[in-house]
Specification:
There is one protein chain. With 273 residues, the chain is of the alpha+beta class. The protein folds into three domains: 67 residues, no CATH class; 36 residues, no CATH class; 112 residues, VSR Endonuclease (Endonuclease, Chain A). Helices cover 34% and strands 13% of the residues. The strands form three sheets. Strands 5-6-7-8 form a four-stranded mixed beta sheet, with helices on both faces. Strand 3 and strand 4 form a beta hairpin. The termini are far apart.
């Protein structure tokens, strides 16, 4: 409200004598906190600045009034300069520990389940390469980052062929023809061991620890490929699998294109078993 008596004492006029848009000062009293202040008649409000900000009705009213308004770049620049340096109300000031704690207490807790983006927390997964249990958030899984436990396992999986080679297809056809219980795992779906680990081409489905590798004549032969890693050779694979109690049966590419390939494979599998 406007204190007419105090206005007349200080300035010698009543507020009613002034025009609504007059810049002459008047004495105003806040309706909530009774704070006395000097303001121009054109800028008079029933509430002081602090009380006006705190009232919900006031904020809703301001929001409706400013809805759809676009601030021009010139106006933005004026406001920016106004709030710079000494014009900023916090210039040269620092929040006390009490005020910091007060601000902290007023901030709603949005951690964990209180967060609107909460989707159930981290999910436990098993790495298809090394079989390590790891955790990923639903958003990581959605974006395709939750397939492997580490970058090294991801790189290993990229190197694996997702399709059958010709020798593998021949062996798979023989397995189907003679009802041999071997499953294709060369796509990275099954691994044996850890650091180093082996991804066999085929494994036995009846619980027997028998792994089958289809070796290319060039890619797995140390005589033809001088830069071949030891773990990719017959001896290297056999050593790794032996540690974990697996038997290894190897068929070379040249074995699968023989005229008697079917009989040869059946004989070798009988020996391996």
């Amino acid at each position: 409200m406007i204190d007419e008596e105090e206005t007349f004492k200080r300035f010698g006029y009543f507020s009613t004598d002034l025009k609504p848009k007059s810049n002459k000062k008047i004495i105003a009293v806040c309706d909530i906190c009774d704070k006395i202040r000097e303001v121009a008649k054109s800028q008079y409000h029933a509430l002081c600045h602090h009380c006006a900000i705190r009232t919900e009705e006031r904020s809703i009213k301001i929001g409706k009034r400013n809805k759809g308004k676009i601030i021009s770049e010139e106006r933005k620049e004026i406001l920016r300069k106004k709030m710079k340096g000494e014009g900023n109300p916090m210039y040269g000031k620092h929040h006390t520990k009490e005020s910091k704690q007060k601000i902290k207490d007023n901030i709603p807790d949005k951690s964990g389940k209180n967060n609107p983006n909460w989707h159930g927390g981290k999910i436990k997964l098993i790495c298809p390469v090394c079989e390590t249990i790891f955790e990923r958030t639903p958003s990581e899984i959605k974006t395709g980052r939750g397939k492997h436990c580490s970058l090294s396992c991801s790189r290993k999986a990229r190197k694996i062929q997702t399709h059958h080679t010709k020798p593998e297809l021949i062996f798979e056809q023989i397995c189907k023809k003679y009802d041999l219980q071997y499953k294709y795992t060369g796509d990275g779906s099954f691994w044996i061991g850890k650091n180093p680990s082996v991804n066999p081409d085929f494994v036995n489905c009846n619980g027997k620890k028998i792994a089958i590798e289809i070796f290319g004549d060039y890619w797995h032969s140390p005589l033809l490929n001088r830069n071949l890693d030891y773990n990719r050779t017959y001896k290297g694979r056999k050593e790794i699998l032996k540690k974990y109690g697996w038997k290894l049966v190897i068929f070379w590419e040249s074995d699968l294109i023989r005229n008697d390939a079917e009989q040869f494979i059946l004989q070798q599998l009988e020996r391996g078993v």
